[in-house]
Amino acid sequence: MSPEPQNHIGKTSERLNVSLTIGGDLAVARIGFGAMRLCGPGIWGGPRDPDSARMVLRRAIELGVTLIDTADAYGPEVNEQLIAETLHPYPEELVIATKGGLTRPRPGAWENDGRPEYLRAACEGSLRRLKLERIDLYQLHAPDPRVPLEESVGVLVDLRAEGKIRHIGISNVSVDELRRARRLVPIATVQNRYNYGDRSSEEILRECERESIIFLPWYPLEAGGSASSIGTLARVATRHNASPAQIAIAWLLARSPITVPIPGTSSIAHLEENVAALCIRLSPQDLAETN
Fold first, then answer.
1. Between the CA of residue 171 and those of 130, 137, 181, what are the distances in Å?
2. Residue 140: burial class (beta carbons within 10 Å; 0-12, 13-18, 19+)
3. Where residue 4 falls among pLDDT bands split at 50, 70, 90?
4. Which end is more exposed in the chain, N or C (fewer Cβ atoms within 10 Å of the end residue's Cβ)?
5. Active-site option among 74, 118, 138, 196
6. What is the pLDDT of residues 42-51, one digit of tens each?
7. Is 196 annotated as catalytic?
């Protein structure tokens, strides 16, 4: 029988104090919280248990999480509303990162909309729902193939000049798209899918390292579908008396000094387990096996 994973909750505060800086002036802990899963099934509608969802958000703050990731498309809109209803007025150190550029015409559907007029309306809607005068980190959710990237990013530059955005990030992009965006404005973060089982964004992760851009890997707990990958994580987890999910997070933290994983959950127990992964230090043997 596999050992029960150790949460190490009493030890996490010291590790959470180890932070990275977004845009040169926003210090965030090395693990954030992805609020998407606090929506209803299919990321549509509100949570089945709103009180439980609020407890998860409050517990994240208690554990020292200082970055919450959301988007206007989550719900849609209800995810941002839930965060504001639960946490506003926000702790001074909390960074709310939201995104615009995807729409939800119906459950299960995600459509691009990178038109400047849409992104302006999306940002202003997020400001109202989050009860903010300025969004610390606003990210283009994804490039729209029908709209030049420069036009989409350009309106974010305008919103930044108007004081509605503090820092700009981009999500689901290639290295070329990142470089094009950076010709217009400093890019503070890149948020791409990246995890132990899916390393397709490896090239852009390395680009972010070279340019000192914080990388927010989404879907961080995916282990890969092969028996070999799953078995490797399980074997390393056993050595650390941890869960494979905790090792997946620890691997992301060790993979690069600029990563801030944003695992999401609707469970306090899973939240505590995820945050406790900060206490796991992978050995050279662990890293060789998981490379």
1. 20, 12, 11
2. buried
3. low
4. N
5. 74
6. 999 999 999 9
7. no
